[in-house]
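[09:14] KT: can someone run the structure on this one? pasting the chain below
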Amino acid sequence: MRRREFIALVGGAVATWPLVVRAQQSNRTPLIGFLWGVGPEDPEFRRRFSAVSDGLREFGWVEGRNIAFASKYTVGDPGGFSGMAADLVQMKSDVIVTSSAGLALLAQQASRNIPIVAIAGELEGTGLISSLRRPSGNVTGIQILAPELMGKRVELLNELVPNLVRLGVILPITPAAFITPNYMARIVEAAEAAKIQVRQLEVRHPDAFGPAIARLSGDDGHCQPVGQYKRRSNRDIRSRASPAGNI
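[09:31] RB: done, structure tokens below
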């Protein structure tokens, strides 16, 4: 998806919620709350925040003029997200924008009245929405990574790595890296078709990511990370876990 299309989709999804319009009609500056799984120094944070603000600007909404933003994020402390979602509700956010389906789930647990827009890998397999065309409830969003692409990744790895027989899959289990069963199902299907063995390891904290990669690489496998913790640090994690660079 091109940047222009992405900006239009995200900005449109946020700007067209009726609660934002009602806030303007009541002479109160609408507040959009952001719940992020990465910090402001991360390129992904800047890219997605820019997409939302640029998209809103195209619909006539400009921060500091007729709309206000409030951002909540944490890096390395997955347990803090629930409290941050509650904070955005207490601040009377008119819309909450999240950077993953897992964070959208926490926001929905905090409020089923405030509209939630998720910029997520997958939404349909999470139970948050009925379908992309008719989301229902108070959650909608942009699905940027279809499960079918996970199978394509396995096929690509099989082409790039001769005689690949074992594949290590790291599953981050945090709200910021929400993994749906559809993702793993596509990976397993593609691996079985190519006669590749799949080994899964769950990671529940950023500090455990490196040891998990080292453990899988010790089995002479190749690691396929699914989801993310901190994109900016992934290269450092790989180099510490595998100095030989075979991952």
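[09:33] KT: thanks! The CA atoms of residues 121 and 213 lie 22 Å apart.
[09:34] RB: yep, looked fine to me
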